[in-house]
Amino acid sequence: MKRLLVLALFLIFSGLETSAQVSDAQIEKKIDVLLKKMALKEKIGQMNQLSADAMETNFKVIQQGMAGSVLSITNPEIANKAQKIAIEQTRLGIPLIFGRDVIHGFKTIFPIPLGQAASFDPDLVEKAARVAAIEASETGIRWTFAPMIDIARDPRWGRIAESCGEDPYLTSVLGVAMIKGFQGKDLSNPTSIAACAKHFAGYGAAEGGRDYNTTNITERQFRNTYLVPFENAVKKADLATIMTAFNANDGIPSSCNEFLLKQVLRKEWNFKGFVVSDWASITEMVDHGFCSDNKEAAQKAINAGVDMEMVSGTYVAYIESLLQEKKITIETINEEVRNILRVKFKLGLFENPYVKGNLKEVFYKEEHLKLAEKIAERSIVLLKNKDAVLPLQQPKTIAVFGPLADAPHEQMGTWVFDGEKNHTMTPIKALQEQYGKDINIIYEPIVKYSRDKDSTDFAKARKIAKQADFVLLFLGEESILSGEAHSLSDLNLQGVQSELLETLVKSKTPIVTIILAGRPLTIQKDVEQSNAVLYAWHPGTMGGSAIANILFGKANPSGKLPVTFPKNVGQIPMYYNHLNTGRPANGSELSLNNIPIEASQTSLGNKSYYLDSGNDPLFPFGFGLSYTTFEYGKIKLSKTVLKKDEVLEISFTLKNTGKYGGSEIVQLYVRDLAASIALPVKELKNFQKIDLKPKEEKQVKFILPIADLAFYGIDMKKKVESGKFDLWIGTNSAEGEKVLFEVQ
Ligand code: BGC
């Protein structure tokens, strides 16, 4: 032991490098050699990504050395053919890197990222990404355009489905987990795929939740909120690539934001991977009104540090003339090509360019499906369970209705190019397979798809419901209603789904509503009318079994909302970690209905709130019930006055007071009460999943380094400021005991 320590110290102080450093240095040397050999055209080729739409033309482009990457080839034979051309028919034989949107699974589809986030389980999330990488890499894909770690606080924005929700800490933890899963322990392993954190940056703050829309994020908001997951991705997960966003922030399109790309990403974070533009986001700078033509767009993107261009071809068209005109320099081009080659070397593509393509051996493997079922179970959030209607107790007859009970395509969710619906386990299929022998299951969709407006069969539904012990009503959204370019201004259930629920209430049979959707929907009335509500997101291939397991108590729900559920669209933006106003509401405000007629001018108590819907959400961030109940003991702090380099220990007892075994996600929130800038009313700083048998109790301990309270204050430097802090431990962001501590 002692000898090892001496050796380690010797290595550190003698300046000798560790093996990882040596290989990094070796890679740089290899790049030096290669760059010297490369003609300008070959360099430009590396910076160009083609789309797989027209492979016959692509083969020719590749042969001319004018492509460094192709996006969306999923057939290993085509991948190998393209690669063979790059390796054998170009002068320097530089391998291609094949990219694809493998967002929440490749063949085996896991819950949408927002659903995975509800599991609050980085371990499972990492495993899911690993499986996605194993399945995708077998086709030749060595690069995924994931994870999407945009902070998403507006459920109108369809891409909230792809995000981990509204919180920078949760998004950071899960983003890091996804990257580790995709990239594996060693990028050169053939099952490792380079991750691409996207979209850099601020895309989720699109005005009005309308996709691609403008954002107005200040530097401080960027640093304290929107950039946090990206910084973690670079520093904690050795992120290989990053994608620029579509939005223009404060008038500057992301694909030429030098502050973000050069100052923050490269200089401050020392990012060593490469930057790719989003699909045509370079040419779109003309539409933004930021560049007069595509040539100027190429110039600005290159100078800002966008290393590879996704599909829009301006680098190929203009780099040579931009160089001649001295609008860009060869040093910049060399640096950008170096960034791309570095990732290719790290992936081992030079040594191992081809793929075996044993697809049958890896797609939909039993263990992959099991994992998909597990994570779907963990992602389901129990929103209501009046009179403990769930888990279902030995029903004789159940009536199953709704457009999402048997919608194999829809339940996979957005961004599914490769998963096949014939592999999907729908809820009705799972229920029939697992319980069909013992229980009389009557299934009638009544409403055929989520937007269906046909209520012809409502009377029939009521009649069936009357004969049943329980109604299971599967409502929600089709997959195409969320995701890219699918923003909505009305978040109520589409079509006549709410009307179906309303009509079923008349049957007096208890109703369990299960919602499968890509975003928080405004379901206040639907929740009121249901006896129990499960939010299952778009749960993926094995969603049906996961839901059946939860309904019958084989699994106890433990999911928590990664995003606030507003009561109505007018409350948006609504997120738990907002700033206070000078006049925060305290619940005692007058509401619309108790304002007297002909009331004279009054400011109604001078509080910041909505007259018609108050200030509370329908469900707060972090909310989720269980079939059991948990009792939180009193919080003990190791100290109440701390120095900035100290660590606070927080402990308490958590007891399962109900009759089912279950898992509770305990959440730790902090508020800095007064600082050089106003800070959020609560910020999640940590969480843990605690498993408890009935009546069991455990001591739970959190370690909070005071350094974790640092933020960018008035001087734009990250540091902890002295002062008082509130700390909560709770079951969600709106509950929990509060204690005070001080930092000196
Ligand atoms: C999306 C990206 C995606 C890319 C490639 C774009 O439209 O914004 O997230 O990775 O397409 O498919």
Describe this structure as you would to a colleague:
The chain is of the alpha/beta class and 744 residues long. The protein has 22 helices and 27 strands. The strands form seven sheets. The chain has a six-stranded mixed β-sheet, sandwiched between helices. A hairpin with a 2-residue loop joins strand 7 and strand 8. The radius of gyration is 27 Å and the shape is globular. The chain starts with a helix and ends with a strand. About 2% of the residues have low confidence. Beta-D-glucopyranose binds next to loops. Belongs to the glycosyl hydrolase 3 family. Its EC number is 3.2.1.21. GO terms for molecular function: beta-glucosidase activity. It catalyses: Hydrolysis of terminal, non-reducing beta-D-glucosyl residues with release of beta-D-glucose. Keywords: Glycosidase, Hydrolase, Signal.
In short:
The protein has 744 residues and is an alpha/beta fold. The chain is built from 22 helices and 27 strands.
